[in-house]
Amino acid sequence: MAGYTPATASDQAEMLAAIGVSSIDELFEQIPADIRLNRELDLEDGMSESEVYRFLAGLADMNLDAERIPSFLGAGMYDHYVPAIVDAITSRSEFLTPYTPYQPEVSQGGLQVMFEFQTAMSEITGLPVSNAGLYEGPSAAASAAYLAMGQTGRTGLVASRGLHPHSRETLATHAVGFGATLTEVGLEGGLTSADELEAAVSEETAAVFLQNPNFLGAVEDIAALGEAVKARGAMLIVQVDPMTLGILRPPGECGADIAYGDGQPLGNRLDFGGPSFGFFCAREEYLRKMPGRIAGETTDVDGRRGFVLTLQTREQHIRREKATSNICTAQALNSLAGMVHLAWLGKQGFVELGELLARRTAYARGLVGSLDGYELLHDAPVVREFAVRSDRPVDELLPLGDQADGPAPRLPVYPLGRDYPEYEDCFLVAITENRSVDEIGWLAHMLEHAQAGWGEHIHDHDHEGNPVAGALR
Amino acid sequence: MSATTLTETPQQADRAKTIYEKSVPGRRAAQLPPLGEGINETPIDELIPAHLLREQPAELPEVSEPEIIRHYNRLSRRNFDLDTGFYPLGSCTMKYNPRLNERVAGLPGHAKLHPATDPSDAQGALQLMYLLQESLSEITGLPTVSLQPSAGSQGELAGLLLTRAYHDDQGRNPTKVLTPDTAHGTNPASVTMAGYEVVKVATNEQGGVDVEDLKSKIDDDVACLMLTNPNTLGVFDENIAEISSLVHDAGGLLYYDGANLNAIMGQARPGDMGFDIVHVNLHKSFSQPHGGGGPGAGPIAVSGRVEPFIPRPQVVRNEIGDEVFFDLDYDRPKSIGRLRGFQGNFGVFVRSLAYILSLGGDGLSEASRLAVLNANYLKQRLSEGRAGKYLPVAFDRHCMHEFVLSGAPMKKDLGIKTLDLAKRLLDFGFHPPTVYFPLLVDEALMVEPVETEAKSDLDAFAEAIESILEEAEGDATVAQNAPYTTPVRRLDEVGATRKPVIRQQIA
Ligand SMILES: Cc1ncc(COP(=O)(O)O)c(C=O)c1O
Question: How far apart are CA A456 and CA A473, in angstroms?
Fold first, then answer.
């Protein structure tokens, strides 16, 4: 068992004597005997640090991570390069180990980070108010729906099928509790159908959810779609990928009432899906209805500048059943990572990275779209991800090699079939600054083989130092 | 920690400058890779129509890398943290965060694994999640665990939506959820979000649920009772078996808020007490660092009758011939669906499993025993001397892993409030306990000393309280105006709310 507890036998004896009991068991007598466990937990015995390390490193080794194969997986989480200073800063004890800044006098560091983060998120989304972060993207969608229903007194939610399937499913799950109904609007040529949207929005609609770029990678005309939403007095809520906002028109300039999203692309590793952070920005009029923590600037008794958690009367610890949200522990450390990454990119780098993504993606899209057996699912503009249709079923396509000698690794692209039966023969390809021209070439090469069938290819190539073996690091 | 760590010289008083205020046009840190051979520098408006593009770049700071490091390191020094000081924040289980856990969570096989990786290429990750599910199942005494919820409050909401799905499946539609008046704020907030009505249950003289009051409120319109046991007073409710059958007999479910699990690991299990749904805060009992307010994770464990409704996907272990294959099961027709994206806060799962493996069954059990020992010892120390006089223990009996003091006599006799005591503790180098919660106790101070603190730290804390009270007997204004040694002193929170300034104005 690990040495994380300082109390020695003699400490324990002294403490028991002070309390006036003869054993620790006596302290547990308040638990009625018939519900005591009265046996050891049926778990392995504790292991030494080196054993635990080796065991978990062994499990890690069984995973095909983005350092071992070029990953073109996206769907909301991307293999961006996380600058080294992010790790350096987030691993500092002073950021890693405190809790929510309930005592502002000794939490100025964390509070100021929140204030800076709010400023940065507000800037990139073009909306005046931001909170200090939520859990992640899809649950932020549910928070936005809760706000919209309270604000409008209406119960209808409308979501484009271009909205991330996880966000739609999360909305559907929460809608049961919120007493809301969720209606979906279809896609046409990769984009939200304006006609279907117009037909779906009514005087009962609290909010319409769009995503930009949408799940198929397409850049939507949010401002144009938003007109039908506004005309019915519904709120326009847009899920955005923060890394595209260096070049895309920010939601605040497209009429969005709320913009939210998953912060993973900003400074957060993939972590098999979490933790990352959610962000939530809105128009000024929703300030007092926002979910989550908000830091505000103020002064101390000596007139010095300082920061505090503010507008807390929205929150569960004060307002209880009338709170604007139930969130308590959020993902502050991940928001800090996002802020450090944004500071590192800076005003220019943020634009340059957006441009780099758009250009490399255009290149990769052109290349993949020209391969035999593939065509683009849509030709709407994209920034960093695109959708491809395959002649051969996607399931058969992905294993890298025929599986005669046991399971082959899968080509890391995102099959659309589970979320979109209508696109069963399609997949998504995502590009980041980590995906070099060579790796894009490797992808094209693999897709060609995959379409034609592997046959002897993979073996032939292996002898000659083929690109599969080369790329599987 | 010594108070001086957070003290700054007047020359350093510009520490509160934001990164934006340090921005200088033209400075930068990032160097991006070249576009790549063969890729054109096509003007962006040829790729994406101009009306969909941003016209002005977002205002982000323009700073060099050394400035970023210095800025955030300096900011970090304006934080009090668990690694340098005692942090007895009640209900939050501020236990040591083993560094091994950070190391294993950072391995590329975990940290750089994409969540949409095909299960056949993520067997290690899925096995890890499966092992954590199994461990939490054993610890809570309930057969099925979903790791998906992102924190305790999301676990609560999940649990309440499960409750709804369960009743719905039986063709019932009860509307009320009972919570004791000692419940954490997230409980009632979650109840409303799940579309239920909160009905409060009173607390009896021993600090447990007032069973008579409960009886008077139970009927077939009760969907569920949410309970923390030990509760937020640090008291174990010995009537739990009776409470449990009262609720079950009326057709309701029992929800266990697992924030206080650190008191009972290996001693008693919520499943054995009759609970149907439990959330576990991995950032409390299972050592995930608190991160200044997260990340955490709030897995839920459920009984057999609730199992069909758990969120999807669920990690399952399949045996195909003699091959074992871990998979994500989406085919759960009665599932409530998703609470969030992908599979949950996996990075937190890695750390918590590392912790469970390090301690083992016996170690977890020992951790709870020592947490309870520490709490009772500190309670004893604080029932002596001036603390005993001015800060009586609410519901004085053996406590579990935490206890609550009332500052009411201190306020009346010395003229200092719980808030003043808390602020003065900062000057002594301690993080104060949770204050003004639970609401039931006047001027409450909720103290949770955790098992990873040494006796000497507990003694030092008790002595600090004694000194502050002694000082206040002489001159109450010292505490009333505290703190003095922190980077800033008391802040104007009312002003901050009246005229909120929540972002930097950029000229
Ligand atoms: C008793 C209790 N219940 C619920 C919660 C909510 O948990 P979380 O902050 O993980 O959402 C907390 C802690 O914050 C708590 O102390």
Answer: 22
- Structural domain contains residue A14: yes
The torsion of the CA quartet A232, A235, A240, A245, rounded to 10 degrees, works out to 90
Geometric angle at alpha carbon A393, from A387 and A395, rounded to 5°: 90
CB A416 within 8 A of CB A393: no
Q: Does residue A109 contact residue B75 with C-beta atoms inside 8 Å?
A: yes
Determine the length of chain A: 473
Assess contact for B186 and A326: CB atoms under 8 A: yes
Report CB contact under 8 Å: B58, A62. no
Please count the helices (runs of H) and the strands (runs of E) in chain A: 16, 15
Across B30-184, where does the E strand assignment appear?
Answer: 144-146, 176-180
Query: Before A265, cis peptide (omega within 30)?
Result: no
Range of the domain at B170: 142-308
Whether pTM exceeds 0.90: yes
pLDDT in tens, A204-220: 999 999 999 999 999 99
How many domains does chain B contain in total? Answer: 1
Q: Which of A300, A327, A440 sits opposite B489 (nearest CB)?
A: A300
Exposure string of B60-93, with b = 16+ CB inside 10 Å and e = fewer, is bbbbebebbbebbebbbbbbbbbbbbbbbbbbbb
Is-cis flag, bond preceding B438, omega within 30?
Answer: yes
Distance from CA of A387 to the nearest CA of B (A): 16
Residues of chain A with pLDDT under 50: 458-471, 473
Pair type for strands A191-192 and A205-212: unpaired
Q: Residue B295: which of A58, A305, A334 has the nearest Cβ?
A: A334
Host H or E run for residue B482 = none
- Is residue A74 one of the residues assigned to a domain? no
The minimum-distance atom of ligand 1 relative to the CA of B281 is: 10
User: Which atom of ligand 1 is closest in space to residue B298's alpha carbon?
Assistant: 10
Q: Which of residues 320-339 of B touch A (CB under 8 A)?
A: 330, 336-339
Those residues whose C-beta lies under 8 Å from the C-beta of residue B58, and which sit 6 or more positions away, are: A120, A123, A124, A126, A245, A246, A250, A347, A350
Are residues A327 and A183 located together in one domain of the fold? yes
- pLDDT tens readout for residues A311-325: 998 989 989 998 999
Instruction: Find, in chain B, the residue whose alpha carbon is nearest to that of A6.
Output: B454
Say how many Å lie between the first and final Cα of chain B, rounded.
Answer: 40
Query: Among A340, A368, A385, which residue terminates a domain?
Result: A340
| DSSP 3-state of B11 | helix
Task: Tell me, yes or no, whether A73 lies in a domain.
Answer: no
Counting Cβ atoms within 10 Å, is residue A429 exposed (0-12), middle (13-18) or buried (19+)? buried
Alpha-carbon distance B391 to B400, whole Å? 19
Continuous segment of H or E residues that includes residue B410: helix B408-414
The continuous run of DSSP H or E covering A16 comes out as helix A9-19
Same domain, A21 and A57: yes
Q: Of A146, A113, A141, A117, give the one whose Cα is nearest residue A129.
A: A117
According to DSSP, residue A426 is labeled E
Cα A261 to the center of its chain, rounded Å: 7
Band of pLDDT at residue B345, cut at 50, 70 and 90: very high
Return phi, psi of residue A281, to 5°. -125, 150
How far apart, in Å, are the Cα atoms of A404 and each of A401, A441, A445, A459? 9, 26, 21, 12
Q: Note whether A385 and A74 are within 8 A (CB).
A: yes
Task: Name residues whose C-beta falls within 8 Å of residue B301's C-beta, 6 or more positions apart in sequence.
Answer: B136, B137, B140, B142, B144, B145, B270, B271, B277, B278, B280
Domain residue limits at A103: 84-340
Does B59 sit within 8 Å of A109, measured CB to CB? no
- Measured from the CB, is residue B259 less than 6 Å from ligand 1? yes
Q: What ipTM does the predicted assembly reach?
A: 0.97
Separation of CA B147 from chain center: 15
